[in-house]
Amino acid sequence: MKRFTITVSTAGNTHIVNLNPELASRVREMKDDALLHLFVGGSTAALTTLEYEPGLVKHDLPELLQRIVPDNVHYDHEATWNDDNGHSHIRAALLGPGLTIPISGGKLLTGEYQQVVLIDFDTRPRKRSIICTLIT
What we know:
Elements: E1 2-10, E2 15-18, H1 20-27, E3 34-40, E4 45-50, H2 54-68, H3 76-81, H4 86-95, E5 98-104, E6 107-108, E7 115-120, E8 126-135
Antiparallel strand pairs: 1-8, 2-7, 3-5, 3-8, 4-7, 5-6
């Protein structure tokens, strides 16, 4: 088992960061089959896969999340903590903090148009750490 961390800076507000280039670089030298488990700490960010293209990343997914979990309604979380990110916690909980990807021959076994992404839902810029565990 090996572990490494990827750190990214985000703008918040449903900022989507493509992790594929960094992950592909990290597993390139692997000869054996393995699993790569990713976990983002924090309760206002999530990991998932999607086709990382401008329409989906900049418009479609943020618009869908705004309809499902709007940022302009009352959340008890905000009253409890006097903040503005109740929707951020709920959006992150829906997608989840972890993801597992198979690896073979030094490559992520994702689909042709499937990229691994971090989505930061918080209402301010953040620095996010993704804990990456290679299991052989």
